[in-house]
Design goal:
heterodimer; A: 447 residues; mainly alpha; three-stranded antiparallel beta sheet; 70% helix; B: 489 residues; Beta-lactamase; five-stranded antiparallel beta sheet; 21 strands
């Protein structure tokens, strides 16, 4: 089946054009002249995408045709924005992009039968928890802005939570696939509220306790929220019990409230969120600058390369962590509300395609895995964009595929590889089913 | 499970819609308020990257210009004021460190060439860089120099000169001044704004300082009397050495008893008991109406930032302007005392209104905006601010004010060969802390216009904390500035 792949190839062309135009705009602003370098970069990017595409054509011919181009759009967006902040960072990011693609190919190569993951679910869960706690280990842990999100081994530092999120989702999908029946059947109504059976309530409390511990240990509200929201999403999809979600939310809010009241760093984050003008040049600086940058963008933005990132003539930052946390604010600053909405729409399209994969999948594990991976991806985007737009407290989560950072881009390519693997099988089976029952009209191609 | 997946997707759509909503709020709906927050340095920093337009005196002399500093993305424009302290007021300053003030602030959008959102989109597409427009002011370089020189010799105070027929502000001087080029220096700025508070060089005394106007206000009282028909130039009022007003004595200098006299004589000799009684006869309603028509009680209609100008009037305990229904001692208000306070700008407006036959023109500092290509994009359009008095009343007042300079209390304002109309004022301000608490301190005034038969310039000059009278210290300033302007024509 090559029709899906042809669509993918077609969809990659506008992505490459976007990247080339973006670089051209940044060059024009920086050096007041057009440089063929933008074309060179465009050509490199196209070549890399083309190789990936050919690989997908061979290995996963039936996989969803839009997921890879959509993620390539985000990467292109990110590369241009990061280049515009700092050329050397963009070179790093491009290298990480290549490394991510290698891991992407390896995942597809070795996990064709991804059910094998189910067999190792406890090992994977343990690995996930260890990864999350690694930043607190003496010697390798790294504290950034009071939160423990990084690990540094020799010259290499990375954010283990990016990989942990995939491990935890695999575990949850597998665990819930096995236990969803008992969770539904064993549920009873107490005072008009449907409660899960006590016996199976335990593991769920463990997950709740884990995310609370996470909050205490790594002190990052955003990461904790992301994990727990992904858990609730999966629990809801697996059991269909909305009351479980409500109970979970109440538990989370109670726990979070308690921790906010007792852990100073988390408390400070919430205070800054509620009252940023208390210390406009101190703790409130980042969120205020983030919002001022957006105000500066207006409807159409100032144009690529036009926004102020540092005070002119100095190195004093005007937008702290512009290449990571606040990259969305920079995008709104330069491309306006339209640019911001375009980015959010891209995330929404990826989410839609991811859920489509889940809808088409035939077995419970595939469905739950696709749902979980998509949900955690979407929620991560929400947590960081929500953070810089003051919907929720600002925390140190990356914007998937856009923010600067090796762990983020590599982990998200693994996530993409898993989604494509599930999609390839689901659509192949759907097509075969359709071929058997309705002749040669391929169903998958229109999906 | 598919139904739940679709519901979950719907929930995520809602979450993303919230993000779009918040982004719209910050970037569009609340953007203006955010840009005006004083902790938001962005607008100023961005304006620094625009070549800000020059500000010129009426003869084309450069008062303010911008020069580029640095290269590439670090390139920015820095303001420079070649004339130093001369036009510190009313031009003000524009620096990223301490923001903007006065004319630089109120005309910021022209000076930066600010455009609408759609205009700037067009510029982005065509690659046009935003560029400021230059503004030619009405300010007269030579007359301003004369005013500043005289003030520096006389003491703290202010001078305002307005062309009566157009409202063009030709001089606005305030002493002590400051050199705007020194504003970016943190220490200097702190010194200018805090420790020398009594001197307050950053305050434009012409528009942001209020003083008791003393006898200059008698012109307003006379205008109310004539205009309301309570008196004519022939009406005689008995002017004894003193009268009892609200239980207090209101006296003439040396308790001199003038007997029954008319307006000309009363104004020429600045007879307090005459004007005190006139005020009582005219009544609250007429006097306050006349004050309001001359601009009292309102922020002056000048093109400076509203927050940098003060309204004149009878000022209550909490700085509020009292109205006709509030209890005031009318006889004392009528001679420019009680709690009456006026800015030099306001008193200059009174002079200009009388000079222009009763039509008070809106005072304006700017004259025209010239774009980068050298073509005039906007020009000052003289407009009538109010018509407080008739032509006849104006003529009668002018005759009386000529008497002041010819043979009365204001002879030092006389210019040889040119008829001058004016009025002195000497308000006693004993124990004024701003003057160091001395008992002999006065606020000395002179207001008037010249030539009396064909007014070209109306001027108010005011000197703080002086032991001298209006005729000794303020009238000579009037004379010098008026001569500078008349000779320059």
């Amino acid at each position: 089946m090559t029709r899906a792949r042809n669509r993918e190839l077609l969809a990659l062309i506008p992505v490459v054009l976007l990247l080339t135009a973006g670089f051209a705009a940044v060059f024009a602003q920086d050096h007041s002249k057009l440089d063929n370098l933008s074309l060179t970069y465009g050509a490199y990017f196209f070549a890399v995408c083309l190789v990936t595409h050919v690989y997908l054509r061979i290995r996963l011919p039936h996989a969803d045709p839009y997921l890879f181009p959509l993620m390539a759009i985000l990467t292109a967006f990110g590369l241009v924005m990061i280049y515009r902040i700092d050329e050397s960072l963009a070179r790093d990011q491009a290298n990480w992009f290549l490394f991510g693609l290698v891991l992407f190919a390896l995942t597809i190569q070795f996990l064709r039968d991804y059910e094998v993951l189910e067999r190792y679910r406890y090992i994977i869960a343990t690995a996930g928890i260890l990864l999350l706690l690694a930043p607190r280990l003496p010697g390798i842990g790294e504290q950034v802005n009071g939160a423990y999100l990084g690990v540094k081994v020799g010259p290499i530092s990375f954010q283990p939570s990016e990989f942990a999120k995939i491990a935890i989702v695999i575990f949850l999908a597998s665990y819930l696939r096995e236990n969803r029946e008992v969770l539904i059947v064993g549920a009873r109504r107490v005072l008009g509220v449907t409660l899960p059976p006590i016996k199976h309530f335990g593991p769920m409390l463990v997950v709740w306790g884990a995310s609370m511990l996470l909050l205490v240990f790594i002190r990052d509200l955003g990461t904790s929220l992301m994990f727990f929201a992904a858990f609730l999403a999966l629990l809801y999809v697996a059991t269909g019990r909305f009351s479980f979600v409500v109970i979970g939310m109440i538990l989370f809010l109670l726990g979070a409230w308690f921790i906010v009241a007792t852990v100073p760093h988390v408390h400070e984050r919430v205070e800054i969120w509620l009252h940023p003008y208390t210390e406009p040049r101190g703790s409130g600086y980042q969120i205020l600058q983030s919002i001022f940058a957006q105000a500066d963008g207006g409807l159409f933005g100032k144009g690529f390369g036009q926004a102020l990132i540092t005070v002119p003539g100095t190195k004093d930052t005007m937008l702290p962590a512009a290449q990571t946390d606040t990259i969305y604010s920079l995008i709104v600053n330069e491309l306006g509300l339209f640019g911001g909405c375009g980015l959010i729409a891209t995330y929404l399209l990826i989410t839609a395609r991811g859920f489509k994969v889940a809808l088409l999948a035939n077995d419970g594990f595939s469905k739950l895995l696709a749902t979980g991976l998509t949900a955690v991806f979407a929620i991560q985007a929400f947590v960081i964009i929500g953070g810089v737009t003051r919907v929720i407290p600002l925390t140190g989560v990356t914007l998937p595929f856009v923010s600067y950072g090796g762990s983020s881009i590599v982990a998200n390519f693994v996530l993409l590889a898993l989604l494509l693997l599930i999609s390839n099988r689901a659509r192949r089976e759907a097509e075969q089913g359709a071929t058997h029952s309705r002749g040669d009209e391929p169903l998958g191609a229109t999906a | 499970m598919n139904r739940q997946i679709i519901k979950l997707f719907a929930f995520i759509i809602v979450l993303f819609a919230v993000l779009v909503g918040f982004t719209s709020y910050w970037s569009v709906f609340d953007a203006k308020a955010l840009k005006e927050k004083n902790v938001n340095q962005r607008p100023l920093l961005e304006q620094q990257q625009i070549p800000r337009g020059r500000i010129l005196a009426s003869d084309g002399t450069v008062i303010a210009k911008s020069f580029p500093n640095g290269h590439g993305s670090g390139k920015r424009y820095i303001r420079h004021y070649p004339l130093g302290a001369l036009f510190g007021h009313p031009i003000g300053y524009s620096f990223v460190q301490y923001g903007q003030s006065e004319f630089e602030k109120s005309h910021n959008s022209e000076l930066t060439g600010e455009e609408s959102e759609f205009g700037s989109i067009f510029d982005q597409l065509t690659g046009t860089k935003q560029e400021g427009e230059q503004i030619v002011t009405n300010l007269d370089l030579h007359a301003q120099e004369v005013a500043m020189g005289d003030l520096e010799a006389a003491g703290h105070g202010a001078v305002v000169a307005i062309e009566p027929s157009t409202g063009a502000v030709k001089v606005m001087a305030s002493n002590p001044g400051y050199n705007p080029n020194s504003i970016p220096n943190e220490k200097t700025f702190k010194r200018l704004s805090y420790t020398e508070k009594v001197n307050a060089p950053l305050v434009n005394r012409a528009s942001f300082a209020r003083y008791p106007p003393g006898s200059t206000f008698k012109v307003v009282t006379a205008a109310a009397g004539l205009e309301s028909g309570v008196i004519t130039p022939e009406t005689a009022i008995n002017a004894p050495g003193s009268i009892i007003d609200e239980g207090h004595e209101l006296a003439n200098d040396y308790h001199e008893d003038f007997g029954p006299i008319t307006l000309d004589f009363a104004l020429t000799n600045s007879v307090n008991t005459w004007f005190g009684q006139l005020g009582q006869k005219v009544g609250n309603k007429n006097l306050f109406s006349m004050m309001e028509a001359f601009g009292f009680g309102s922020i002056p209609p000048l093109d400076l930032p509203e927050e940098e100008m003060l309204p004149s009037g009878v000022v209550g305990e909490h700085g509020e302007i009292l109205h006709r229904k509030d209890p005031v001692d009318l006889a004392r208000v009528a001679i420019g005392q009680e709690r009456l306070l006026a800015t030099p700008l306001q008193i200059a407006m009174v002079a200009a209104g009388v000079a222009n036959g009763g039509k008070l023109m809106k005072p304006q500092i700017w004259n025209r905006v010239v774009d980068a290509d050298g073509s005039v994009t906007k020009r000052m359009d003289p407009s009538v601010y109010s018509e407080p008095i008739s032509k006849k009343t104006a003529a009668e007042l002018t005759t009386a004010m000529e008497g002041v300079v010819d043979e009365g209390t204001g002879t030092n304002a006389a210019i040889s060969g040119v008829p001058v109309a004016g009025k002195t004022g000497t308000a006693e301000t004993p124990g004024n802390e701003a003057c160091g608490g001395g008992e002999e301190e006065n606020q000395a005034w002179f207001m008037g216009f010249a030539p009396a038969n064909d007014p070209k310039i109306a001027i108010a000059a005011s000197v703080e904390c002086t032991e001298q009278f209006g005729n000794d210290v303020a009238a000579p300033i009037f004379r010098d500035v008026a001569e500078a302007i008349l000779n320059g024509e």
